[in-house]
Design goal:
The structure is a homodimer.
Chain A (H helix, E strand, L loop, with lengths): L3 E6 L7 H14 L3 E7 L1 H6 L3 H4 L4 E5 L10 H7 L4 H10 L5 E4 L3 H12 L9 E6 L7 E4 L9 H18 L6 E5 L10 H12 L4 E6 L11 E3 L2 H26 L3 H20 L2 H5 L1 E4 L4 E4 L6 H16 L2 H17 L1
Parallel strand pairs in A: 1-2, 1-4, 2-3, 4-11, 6-9, 7-8, 7-9
Antiparallel strand pairs in A: 5-6, 5-10, 10-11
Chain lengths: ~350, ~350
Amino acid sequence: MANLTLALDAMGGDFGPPVTVPAVMRALTHFPNLTISLFGDKPQITKHLPPEYQKHSRLTVTHCQQVVTMSDRPLNAIRNRKDSSMRKAIDMVKTGEAGACVSAGNTGVLMAMAKLILKTLPGIDRPALIAKLPSLTNKPVYMLDLGANVSCDSDALFQFAVMGSVVAETVDAISSPRVSLLNIGEEDIKGNDVVRQTAGVLKASSQINYCGFIEGHQIFNGSTDVIVCDGFVGNISLKTTEGVAHLMLNHIQQLTDQNIVTKILGFIAAPFLKKAFCKMKPDQYNGASLLGLRGIVVKSHGNADQDAFYNAIKQAVVEVEQQVPARIQDRLESVLLEKIG
Amino acid sequence: MANLTLALDAMGGDFGPPVTVPAVMRALTHFPNLTISLFGDKPQITKHLPPEYQKHSRLTVTHCQQVVTMSDRPLNAIRNRKDSSMRKAIDMVKTGEAGACVSAGNTGVLMAMAKLILKTLPGIDRPALIAKLPSLTNKPVYMLDLGANVSCDSDALFQFAVMGSVVAETVDAISSPRVSLLNIGEEDIKGNDVVRQTAGVLKASSQINYCGFIEGHQIFNGSTDVIVCDGFVGNISLKTTEGVAHLMLNHIQQLTDQNIVTKILGFIAAPFLKKAFCKMKPDQYNGASLLGLRGIVVKSHGNADQDAFYNAIKQAVVEVEQQVPARIQDRLESVLLEKIG
């Protein structure tokens, strides 16, 4: 594996350095070819770095005066947070010094900054958020967009299908990934105009393995590899997932709280259930990637813990190794050529 | 309680009389004031009726030549299924002989037939599907629309808010029910134009207890009583719920399959888990009501079992007793007067 460098925003998310710094140390241990540039409040970061990491040959810490807060508005942050840890991490991708950046900070600001600084790939109107979901077959399912685009036309959904295919193919080595459109019925006549139009375009493309519409209850059944939808629907579906998992765990807890025997059973089952529950918060568990940019940006969840932030770093490493943006660009060119021709 | 009559489509759903007839017998036993008119294939229905029910004073069976199939298209069914069990049941509500109809048949056809025959209430553009969801606080949460309207303007969402409030108030005796709009963020600036416009109208209404936006993960946390969204989003969110529950049960099953001890634990837990799982398929478990019509129509799920079809009958009984359409009409008039004035 070639050496690679990541730029990390140490300050983003609900916890900042207490979570991001330990995840960084773990990543440095796990990936001997990885160099990390950490941006943020140097004293805070250093506090969480054991002495052996303070002069680590593959770690640099750059002090930033500013932090993007969760309440910052995108336009305002773009203008007034030029010395923030998030901005500096993105800048480093722009200059090519880093292969990717990872942040658990304000999603809206991250998307806007990344789009402004890195720019979208030719043929992409707007970037999209993608995450890996669990499935009945234990194979990952990718879903996009998860909230970057409130409303989408069929061109945008088509672009998502292309990008999702490339990610499934490169990151998870799925050959000819099955692509489905999320809809409220499986029949061709179902859904709104945008979804039906997109289906037509996808059917006509020989380079996308389009498999038709799927409904909400089929998201996790392993019948597809890439699920395409607009960001409004995708975000609500993803967050519904989290809500249901929470409710089911609560039901199970109520059952186990009934008497001493069920309490013991509950105690034994707790770690397994916690694991199952984590998987049901896919964006928290794995991080979500911003696709369609001329650079790699991975968004770790706001309340990501150490494991989740580490998973986001891992995701960034794989995307750099697989050169995801370049592959998306190649595929887009060939798909769009076919579309025009 | 006053006497009431329901018109039931015995043929709808995946199973027909083997499921609908036993549910009818249970309802007749449970509600001594209930009379049921059952429509469908008489020989098939009679086969499932024990002798004492064949001449039951509160049960009539009307033979219908036709059945609406799951593949029937609405327009075609309206034209060519005039002697179907579904149509006859709706007709009986139209003439006033029945207080409500219940069907587990083709949703699209049921909605189209019901709208054409019963007509919408004044002030309602299109009917909406509503169902009761479970919550962390064990209080029901109503959500609409669940798929009757693929896209909605803010007028439609406002009407849903009024109708949902009336149902929560009358069916579940929730005073001043909290109404929320499903969105991809809680802040005022989040979401699309329709959602933001609707928020403005709801805020301005003194007769709706509008509580702002909620996100997908908050659907089940008991923070609201009525969740309003368009039918595309609502349907996908509802079906996502079903998919997640299925996936979580599968995870738990994998855990319990590991060895003999966990298998025994799984065996003990199975009935509780099944119960928790049923609740996660709210439309299957409770049935969904079609609101905004000049009559009551309850849609039982296509693969409803006996319990689920019985629950749908119960829902119809309560709506008749509470005169839900009349109450919606009253509320609409007063809300619209305020809006205009």
